[in-house]
Structures are given as structure tokens and as C-alpha cells.
């Protein structure tokens, strides 16, 4: 009798697993509630700081742009879109947009091309490469105010090194920051000098992380070095290049400190970027509401530029 009972117990089917909670029960918190309860206390400080430093200032800027803050600090009340209407009718505003876009396009293209070339050189293993990379990063980590002051000395019409070099090769001296036709390009040279090494270091890291198999296959097929770089290396490197360009895009659209230290938007508004124009409206002309509208237009421009790059990256990743 004992043997039969043992055999019967051994032949019994295993117990069915408990049913999984339905999606509706998960939504009510039966499944994910313990995890959520553990995560929210960790996220709360970061969310509080984000709201205090980002959300509230943006909301205050929106409210300020829709009101009329006077120079004596009083507020005349709600004026709707009057500040934005004044902005789009101002030739100075459109000039600042043009200057911002020209500086953005020129600097981004030059820094990307030079960054790719310099990044390739930095990816080659040679003695002292790491030391050289560290030295190259000095311009990017130097305060923009210090960079602007040094380049103001270089651009000095009488004692600056730039004009001394031109004179040494038989060319006439140039008023780098005083000529409306040259001042913007002088600012662009400073930005290219400061941030091309940053682009090069990012691209060099991307080159060193590329797989070797596609290049070996191209070599077996008889591809030259230029064809391998163009048709194999560059497509594989595009995600890294797009990230570097996105980082520089956000900075270039918000370009302010170097321009304001060197030219304050002059001469004759030749370097008056949108950010500098907004600063002058707020702190020199004492028009806080109009300056708020200008800064919201700058925020919109940054969002459009960054969103465009993000969509471009996603389409490239989806096509691969």
C-alpha cells in the first residue's frame, strides 16, 4: 500500500504556475509598484532641481514676454503678442538672426572638416600621442572670456601678432575687430581655433573604435586608401560625427561670451548675434519684456536645430 501511494504521488502532474497579473492589474500597480516606489524617491531631487532651474525660469520668461515690464521695475500688465510683433518687424532682429546663422554654418562646417582630418591624425598610434591629445584639449577647457582677451591682443591693430605676420609676408595690416566686413570672420577664426580640437578628439575616439573587418574586406577587393576612407570609414563614423555636430550646434546657436567680450555686437551690428541682441535689450536698453521675447525666439531656434539633427540621425540609423 505504501509503494502504491508513493508511485501515485510521483506520477502526479506538477502544480500549475500562478497566473501572471493582467495588464490592467499592472497599471494599477500590482506588479510594478515596488519598483516605482523605490525609484521615485531617487528621482525626486533631480526633478525638483530641473523644475527650479529649467521649468520655472522658462515659464517666467513666457509670462514676461506677454507683459510690459517697464524700466522702473513695474509691470503695466498683459500685452499679448505685442513684443513678438515688434520683434518680427525689427530689422535689427533679422540682422541678428542672419549673423547667428552665418556664424553657425561657417564654424560648424569648418570645425567638422578640420576635426575629421585632425581626428584621423590623432587616431594613429605614435609615441606621445596621449600627451599631445591632452595639450590639444587646453583651448576647449579654457574659459571663453580668457580666450577672447588673448585673441583681442592678437588682433590688436598695432602690436598684435596677426598684423605682424601679415606685415612680415608683405601684406597690409587689417583692423580685425573694427572692420564690419572682417569682424564676423575674425570671431569665426577664434571659435574654430578653440573648438576644432574638441571635435577632433571625439572623432579620433570614434575612429579607434571602428571594426577592422570592413576595412580588411575592402583591401581584399582592391580598394585604395581613399576609397576605404570614403566608402567604408566615413559611413561607419557618421553616428559619432553627428553627435559631435549636435553638441557644437547647441553651443554655436547660443554663441555669446566671446562675441560680447571682443566686439559687444559691433562694429555696426556686424557681430550682433541673437543672444547678444537679447542681452543688450535686457541690460542696456532696460527692456526686459522685449528681451524675454528675443530669448524665447533663441530657445525656439535651438530646439529647431537640435531637433533637425536628431531626426537626421534617426533616419540614418533606420536606413542602415
UniProtKB/TrEMBL annotation:
Gene Ontology CC: one annotated term: plasma membrane
Membrane topology listed for this record: Multi-pass membrane protein
Domain of life assignment: Bacteria
Transmembrane domains' residue ranges: 35-60, 101-122, 134-154, 182-207, 232-250, 290-312
Compositionally biased intervals (Low complexity): 1-13
GO biological process assignments: transmembrane transport
Cellular location(s): Cell membrane; Membrane
Key words of the record: Membrane, Transmembrane, Transmembrane helix, Transport
Designated name of the protein: Carbohydrate ABC transporter membrane protein 1 (CUT1 family)
Native source species: Pseudonocardia hierapolitana
Amino acid at each position: 500500500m505504501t509503494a502504491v501511494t508513493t508511485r501515485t504521488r510521483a506520477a502526479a502532474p506538477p502544480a500549475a504556475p500562478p497566473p501572471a497579473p493582467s495588464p490592467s492589474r499592472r497599471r494599477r500597480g500590482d506588479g510594478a509598484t515596488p519598483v516605482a516606489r523605490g525609484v521615485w524617491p531617487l528621482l525626486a531631487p533631480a526633478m525638483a532641481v530641473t523644475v527650479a532651474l529649467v521649468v520655472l525660469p522658462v515659464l517666467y520668461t513666457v509670462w514676461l514676454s506677454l507683459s510690459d515690464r517697464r524700466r522702473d521695475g513695474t509691470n503695466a500688465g498683459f500685452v499679448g503678442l505685442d513684443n513678438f510683433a515688434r520683434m518680427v518687424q525689427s530689422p535689427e532682429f533679422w540682422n541678428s538672426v542672419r549673423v547667428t546663422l552665418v556664424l553657425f554654418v561657417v564654424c560648424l562646417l569648418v570645425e567638422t572638416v578640420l576635426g575629421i582630418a585632425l581626428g584621423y591624425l590623432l587616431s594613429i598610434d605614435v609615441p606621445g600621442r596621449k600627451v599631445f591629445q591632452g595639450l590639444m584639449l587646453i583651448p576647449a577647457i579654457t574659459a571663453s572670456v580668457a580666450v577672447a582677451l588673448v585673441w583681442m591682443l592678437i588682433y590688436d591693430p598695432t602690436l598684435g601678432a596677426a598684423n605682424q605676420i601679415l606685415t612680415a609676408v608683405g601684406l597690409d595690416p587689417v583692423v580685425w575687430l573694427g572692420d564690419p566686413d572682417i569682424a564676423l570672420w575674425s570671431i569665426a577664426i577664434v571659435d574654430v581655433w578653440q573648438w576644432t580640437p574638441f571635435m577632433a578628439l571625439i572623432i579620433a575616439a570614434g575612429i579607434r573604435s571602428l571594426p577592422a573587418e570592413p576595412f580588411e574586406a575592402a583591401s581584399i577587393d582592391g580598394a585604395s586608401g581613399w576609397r576605404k576612407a570614403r566608402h567604408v570609414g566615413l559611413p561607419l563614423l557618421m553616428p559619432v560625427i553627428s553627435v559631435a555636430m549636435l553638441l557644437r550646434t547647441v553651443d554655436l546657436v547660443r554663441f555669446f561670451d566671446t562675441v560680447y567680450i571682443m566686439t559687444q555686437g559691433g562694429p555696426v551690428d556686424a557681430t550682433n548675434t541673437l543672444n547678444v541682441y537679447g542681452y543688450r535689450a535686457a541690460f542696456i536698453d532696460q527692456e526686459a519684456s522685449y528681451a524675454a521675447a528675443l530669448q524665447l525666439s533663441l530657445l525656439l531656434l535651438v530646439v529647431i536645430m537640435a531637433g533637425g539633427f536628431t531626426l537626421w540621425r534617426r533616419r540614418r540609423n533606420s536606413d542602415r
